[in-house]
Every structure is written in structure tokens, then in C-alpha cells.
Design a protein that fits this description.
Layout: no helix or strand
The structure holds zinc ion (2 copies).
């Protein structure tokens, strides 16, 4: 008897974009300028 939850899709299906590690997802850096790491998108 196996648990059907074991057959969920693999965890390697990750989002193409993620919260920016530089601005924290705000799209603005500490100087209130557009984050150059994500170009203001908030994702990188
Ligand atoms: Zn980033
Ligand atoms: Zn950013």
C-alpha cells in the first residue's frame, strides 16, 4: 500500500522568477532608485 501523495510532481519545477535577493522584491534599492539587479521588477 503506497501513499498517493508520493506521486506528486517533482519539486524541481521551480518558478522562472523569484523574489529579488538584492531589493527583497520591492524593485527599489536602498537609495530609492530602481534596483539594478532586477530592473525594478522585484524578481530575478
Ligand atoms: Zn536579485
Ligand atoms: Zn531587485
Amino acid at each position: 500500500m503506497t501513499d498517493p501523495d508520493e506521486n506528486l510532481q517533482p519539486a524541481d519545477v521551480i518558478p522562472k522568477r523569484w523574489q529579488c535577493c538584492h531589493c527583497g522584491g520591492t524593485g527599489v534599492d536602498s537609495y530609492s532608485d530602481t534596483c539594478q539587479h532586477c530592473e525594478g521588477l522585484g524578481f530575478c
